[in-house]
Amino acid sequence: xxxxxxxASLKTSRIQLESTLEHRIVVGDCVAEMSKLPAGSVxxxxxxxxxxxxxxxxxxxxxxxxxxxxxxxxxxxxxxxxYDDFTxxxxxxxxxxxxPSATLWVIGSYHNIxxxxxxxxxxxxxxxxxxxxxxxxxxxxxxxxxxxxxHETM
Length: 154
Hints:
The chain has 154 residues and is α+β, with helices and mostly antiparallel strands. The protein is 29% helix and 16% strand. Strand 2 (59-60) and strand 3 (66-67) form a beta hairpin. Helix 3 packs across helix 4.
């Protein structure tokens, strides 16, 4: 669904876009939506899967103020096994929809990218490159207990 910033539906615009463009952004459950695509029809998949941050409570700055973080249900999994099952499901759905010559880009952080990469290899995907996206303005390291996470991996 294409929507405005105010959340109003723009169904007329979507119909017009779909009839004039080959490229679409689809919002919904990724596995369900990819299953609607014809097999072998997709040239490129860019995936930004849940990072499975495993947050157990609010994040606080040293001054005790609240840090906005991803706390939505879509990033909560009961276990690493549940996360792995989800990852396998969307990767298989993507593979089914992809053309033989298609490319898959997956972005992640140290929280998830190694699990995703391992599952990709288990499923027979070929990892062509490891690209580092350097963040010029990363989330601050408030407690000073680890290095600042200043990159994501693709």
